[in-house]
C-alpha cells in the first residue's frame, strides 16, 4: 500500500492497529474464498482461476453475488440532454440481472473508441434523486478528458426498475447494477466504446459499492477509484448514519438478519474486507482529513486490509478537505485521471 499525504507519518501505527481486525477475514479466522462471479460477456482476461465456494451461501451476502451469473446488456441511448464542443450527454438505460436501470452517458467528440468509466454515486434519497444527479463535476471532467462516462442511477432511482427488498438487504443490489453497467458497456457493440478498457469510480456510498464490486467480480474492471468512501463494514454505516436518526429500517434489518452479536457470520458475509484476497484491480482511495461525514479511519482500515491481502492499493489523504472535496478537488481529480490513464491503456 502506498500511503500519501498525512497518512505517511502514521503508516506503521495504522497497520499495527488494523492487523487485529482486518487481515483477509474478520475475527482472525480465514474466510473461504468463493468462486469468482460469472459475468456474461467477460473477456478471457476477466476470468480468474476458480476458487473453493462455501455452500450454501446466504442469499443476502457477497458470496451469493459471487455465485450469481450476472448479466448486463441492451445499452440504449435515449434523449440528448446536452451537447457541447467536448461531448454529448445522453439519457440511457441498460439491463442488469433482469432489471432496467437508468442513467446518463457522456460520449466524447472525436474518433473513438474511448476508454469507459462507470460512476457510482453516493447516497441521495431516491424520493428526491433525479437521473445523473450524483457526480456532475466528475461526469463533465472525465468526459472532457476523453472517457465515455456511464453514471448509473441504481435500482429504485429515477427511471430504474423497483427492487422493494433492496434497502433491507443492505443495498447489495447496487453492486449488481454496477456490474451490469460494465457488462452493458462491454457488450454494447458501439464504436465509441472500448469494451476492453473500463474503470470504476465511486464516492461516499458509491465507494462502498466499489469495494463490493471488486470482491464480487474480480477482473471485470481494469482499475478502481474511491473518493471519501463509507465503511467497508455495513454495521458501522448503520450505527453512524441510520441508528442516530431513528431510521425504522434499522429494526427491519436486524429483525431479518440479526444483529452483529446475534449473527456474526451474516455480517462477515456482507463485508468486502472478509474477501479482500479476491481483488485483482489496482485501487486508489482518496479521503479528506477533515471529513466529518465518513471518518478517514474507515479508509485507513480498508486500505490496510487490502494491503495485508497483497493487493495494489494506494491510500491518498487530502489535508484539510471535507467529504465533498473543495479547494483540492481539481488537484485530486488530476491524480484520479492520471491513475486511470496508467491502467486503462
TrEMBL record:
All copies of domain Peptidase S9 prolyl oligopeptidase catalytic, residue ranges: 142-343
Biased composition, class Pro residues, residue ranges: 47-57
Family: Belongs to the AB hydrolase superfamily.
Coiled coil: none
Protein name (database record): Alpha/beta hydrolase family protein
Record flagged with keyword Signal: yes
InterPro entries reported for this sequence: AB_hydrolase_fold, FrsA_esterase, Peptidase_S9_cat
Enzyme Commission identifier(s): 3.4.-.-
Signal peptide as annotated in the record: 1-24
Keywords of this entry: Hydrolase, Signal
Example of a GO MF term: hydrolase activity
Positions of the UniProt region annotated as Disordered: 25-65
